[in-house]
Design brief:
The protein is α/β, with parallel strands linked by helices. The chain has 2 domains: 119 residues, Rossmann fold (3-Layer(aba) Sandwich), CATH 3.40.50.1980; 140 residues, 3-Layer(aba) Sandwich (Rossmann fold). The strands form 3 sheets. Strands 6, 7, 8, 9, 10 and 11 form a 6-stranded mixed β-sheet that branches. Strands 1-4-5 form a 3-stranded parallel β-sheet. β6 and β7 form a beta hairpin. α5 packs antiparallel against α6 and α6 runs parallel beside α13.
Length: 318
């Protein structure tokens, strides 16, 4: 009898110990589940940003590649060129020239958005549509159009902040130069081996002069009812000596496609060999300024601010 009671006691104690063990294990399991649930809840409650995946971009312009570099944009294709590209793009696959990209290469690098210059749109757009590639064009023809295009490009590729910073940088010289004599009359002459032309305000350098607020004699020549000159699609008019003498400029800005030394040599020869040009007050007073083609091209680029500063210094001398 006593032995049975002893066995019963042992059995009860074992049951209690097992029960306690089970309760402890269940409690630990519940605590573990609670921790896991809390971790999951924390992850779920964290705000998730739905950022759109950036499209694979190829660029068909050196000037625009410089702007994209300033915006910290990764690209999959870049133009084939001997001109200077941003360092981070040097090892990127080439897709052909700015005016005629190789669309087999454009496709091979996975391009989803091709960014080019407006001046080459007619040569690019039709083929791009045939290949089903989305395009965007930056207008580099004038200062104002360039800034507007940068703003739209920033919105297009989700780089609004970077675009705004670039635009502000390009506008800063205008805000810093408030004492320029607005009555100065400027002639902007582009020279080449074949001809010499006056740049209107619808050219890149002409638009910079306009932004600085000084007078471009080309505007007077165009509006001359007696003998108006035809403006070509790029915003230039043929250099007319009669009109130049009639609307004599205070200073002459001369530029060409070569380096500054070759441009200066060509213009000096032009002025020395032509008595009419040699008689201009600006020529006699050494008010002819030769613009560096590395800064002053025929289209806008990422040194717009430097161009404005240099023009401002020239104008402040007069």
């Amino acid at each position: 009898m006593k032995f049975k009671k002893f066995l019963l006691s042992i059995s009860l104690i074992s049951s209690i110990l097992v029960g306690c063990g089970s309760t402890s294990t269940e409690k630990e399991n519940k605590e573990n589940v609670k921790v896991e649930n809390n971790e999951n809840t924390d992850n779920t409650d964290t705000p998730q940003q739905n950022v759109e995946q950036q499209k694979k971009i190829s660029v068909a312009s050196v000037a625009i590649s410089q702007i994209l570099s300033d915006m910290n944009v990764d690209i999959v294709g870049r133009p084939t060129t001997k001109l200077t590209l941003p360092n981070e793009y040097l090892d990127v696959a080439e897709i052909g020239s700015s005016f005629s990209p190789d669309f087999e290469k454009v496709l091979s690098v996975g391009t989803e958005l091709l960014i080019g210059d407006t001046m080459f749109k007619d040569k690019i757009e039709k083929t791009a549509q045939e290949y089903g590639i989305e395009t965007f064009y930056v207008d580099t023809s004038t200062y104002e159009e360039f800034l507007s295009s940068i703003d739209m490009l920033g919105k297009k590729i989700g780089k609004e902040k970077e675009a705004t910073e670039i635009i502000e940088k390009f506008k800063k010289p205008l805000n810093d130069m408030t004492d320029i004599n607005k009555d100065i009359k400027v002639a902007i002459i582009m020279g080449s081996s074949e001809s010499n032309m006056l740049a209107t305000e619808n050219t890149y350098i002409g638009s910079l002069v306009k932004a600085l607020g000084v007078k471009n004699i080309a505007t007077e020549v165009i509006n001359n009812g007696d003998n108006p000159l035809q403006v070509d699609p790029n915003g230039y008019i043929n250099l007319n000596l009669e009109q130049l003498l009639k609307n004599e400029p205070d200073i002459i800005l001369a530029f060409g496609h070569g380096n500054m030394d070759s441009t200066k040599k060509a213009f000096e020869q032009l002025f020395n060999e032509n008595p009419a040009l040699k008689s201009l007050t600006a020529v006699k007073n050494n008010k002819v300024y030769y613009l560096d083609s590395a800064i002053f091209g025929t289209s806008a680029n990422n040194v717009v601010d430097k161009a404005l500063i240099e023009l401002g210094e020239i104008l402040n001398e007069n």
